[in-house]
Amino acid sequence: MTPAKFEAWCRLLVALSFFFLVLLLVAIVLAITLVWTLRELDKLGYGPAFFILWMCSVGRSRRDVPVEMIERGLPTHPNPQTIPQDMSKKRHTKEARIRAIREHEAGRSQAEICRQLNITAPTFYRWKKQLGMMTNSDAQRLRTLEKDNKELKQMVADLLLEKRVLKVALEKKL
User: What phi and psi values does residue 94 have, to the nearest 5 degrees?
Assistant: First the structure.
């Protein structure tokens, strides 16, 4: 082996050693982050199973991450654009939202209410803005009105469909 080839092999060996050293450092940092995250989740009462489900989820928005995780600076899921379809369901009824607002007005702290309901502060203040003056009876009345409105819209759609069918049938007869 010539000295030039030997020198080239030495340089390659040094470069590969440096590459694997950097790779090893990155792996160590990731392992430390993972252990820290699992410990913080354990302090909050969430076990490793929650962490695995949380990391394997298709996509989560920030509102679905427990408030404690955000407060402690734990990483949230990086892709909020893909929210599963079942996320559109409301987790809290209007009555529960109104009850939370009334508790806050009675003197309970907003942070405590948010922690109990697993919501963020902006969500709570949005509820307060939307439902601040509403009572439970108003919410029930609103729900019945919305249900009636939905039924009326369905009736109008059915009548329009029948009208179109009759119109087409008359045109074919003539």
Answer: -65, -35
| pLDDT digits 0-9 by tens, 46-83 | 666 666 655 655 455 555 555 555 566 555 554 444 44
Q: Whole-angstrom Cα distance, residue 97 to residue 10?
A: 69
Of residues 142, 76, 135, the one with CA closest to residue 101: 135
Judging by beta carbons within 10 Å of its beta carbon (0-12, 13-18, 19+), is residue 114 exposed, middle or buried?
Answer: buried
- Six-digit token pair at 30? 């990731």
Q: Are residues 94 and 32 in the same domain?
A: no
Please tell me whether residues 30 and 58 are part of one structural domain. Answer: yes
| Residue 77 neighbours by CB under 8 Å, 6+ apart | 54, 55, 57, 59, 60, 65
Stretch 116-137: mean pLDDT: 86
| Whether 98 contacts 134, CB under 8 Å | yes
> What is the number of domains present in the chain?
2
Range of the domain at 125: 90-134
Instruction: Report the pLDDT value the prediction gives residue 15, as an integer from 0 to 100.
Output: 87
Reading the block at residue 37, the tokens are: 């995250």
User: Which 8-state DSSP code applies to residue 85?
Assistant: G
Residue 67 included in any domain:
yes
For the chain, give the number of residues.
174
Band of pLDDT at residue 89, cut at 50, 70 and 90? low
Residue 45 has pLDDT above 70, yes or no: no
